[in-house]
Design brief:
18 strands, six-stranded antiparallel sheet, alpha/beta, Elongation Factor Tu (Ef-tu), domain 3, about 375 residues, Rossmann fold
């Protein structure tokens, strides 16, 4: 199960005027717990003005770099991102959850594959870890990166990317796409929308030779890029993507069912009906009483002294994944569970909305 540990900040590095990267000191006794796969993320937790802040940030360090580092881009009115960019310093401590996430791929020294990635803004963070690790550990593989930003000043890891290009001249192709700066190549100007993605693929990539496409970025960049790839006939199984959102969007992500015209018969149609939720976590069964079926399970559990694993609250990260072993529930949103998981009864607890008066959720089921 994901677990928090208090880690000391080893280094804070300014990457751009509005982004920093933060490295953590992992003691030897926790080295195994924080062993990660490229593309995974860390959840960080701290108290700020009397309120708990919990955010997830992708790991940007490669497997052979002997450090655990994340990147945090400042978000307007973002409380943690402001704290990270203005106040965090080496020697300070944060609660850090053990690595999670499934925006990964297998790595094998015998592989000779072609990888292509589309990233925008801070979406470069997990892509950076993937590129560093795959190029280092698969000497027969190639990696092509299309990285979108507004201006060259906003390119996170710019020097690191150039160093990677110099180190792997024949195997790493890097294309910067800038929306607010003109260039000599028209295709490298503009946003990474569907049209631009199609043109970039047609100009620089041979899709049948590509083993994996990685997509990571804000807003509608991912659905548009993914649809462009599908329209080009690329197998959806080859496409991996990582969504992220802002804290404000996370809080609004789960709308109450009684605010929707779903027409689904359930206990949610009567807000006076309480729901008993039993959870199995670390081998212990605990009970939570929801005042009604619109109540959020994670928030209610916390208020009743039960700490359930969660991170984004937006149906994206899968940290709160559990198996529904009794009762019925649906989800307001789901961006992370695979079809086979849904078939086996897994749900995202942050998005679960009961359709029966009792649920039993098993967080220990794998």
């Amino acid at each position: 199960m994901p677990t928090f540990h208090n880690l000391t900040i080893a280094d804070v590095r300014r990457e751009t005027p509005d982004a920093v990267s933060i490295a953590f000191d992992v003691p030897p006794e926790l080295a195994e717990a924080y062993r990660y796969e490229p593309g995974q993320y860390l959840v960080v937790r701290t108290e700020h003005d009397g309120e708990e802040l919990r955010r997830n940030y992708s790991i940007c360090s490669g497997l052979d770099e002997d450090e655990l580092r994340i990147a945090v881009k400042h978000v307007p009115d973002g409380r943690f991102s402001t704290l990270a960019n203005e106040r965090l310093a080496p020697g300070m401590q944060l609660d850090v959850m053990t690595p999670g996430g499934r925006f990964t791929t297998d790595i094998d020294a015998d592989n000779a594959r072609s990888y292509v990635a589309f990233a925008a803004g801070s979406g470069i963070t997990p892509i950076m870890a993937l590129a560093r690790s795959l190029l280092a550990r698969e000497p027969g593989s190639t990696f092509t990166l299309f990285y979108g930003n507004r201006t060259s000043a906003g390119i996170i890891f710019r020097e690191n990317l150039e160093a990677l290009k110099d180190r792997y001249l024949d195997r790493f192709s890097l294309f910067h796409i800038l929306s607010r700066e003109g260039g000599d190549v028209p295709r490298l100007t503009g946003r990474l929308d569907a049209k631009n993605v199609r043109e970039l693929i047609e100009a620089f990539v041979r899709p049948p030779e590509v083993e994996r496409f990685f997509l990571c970025g804000p807003g509608d960049m991912i659905p548009k890029a993914r649809q462009a790839l599908l329209d080009l006939g690329i197998d959806r199984k080859k496409i991996r993507f990582e969504r992220f959102t802002t804290p404000d969007a996370e809080q609004k992500a789960r709308a109450p069912r009684n605010a929707e015209a779903s027409g689904t018969p359930s206990v949610a149609s009567d807000t006076d009906v309480a729901v008993l939720v039993e959870v199995v976590l670390d081998g212990v069964r605990r009970s939570i009483l929801l005042p009604n079926a619109d109540a959020n399970i994670i928030d209610t559990a916390h208020a009743q002294g039960i700490e359930l694993p969660f991170s984004c609250r937006g149906g994206m990260c899968c940290t709160c994944r559990s198996r529904l072993v009794e009762g019925e529930a649906d989800m307001a949103l789901n961006y992370s569970l695979e079809p086979w998981e849904l078939e086996q009864g897994y749900i995202l607890t942050c998005q679960a909305r009961p359709k029966s008066e009792k649920l039993v959720l098993d967080f220990d089921s794998t």
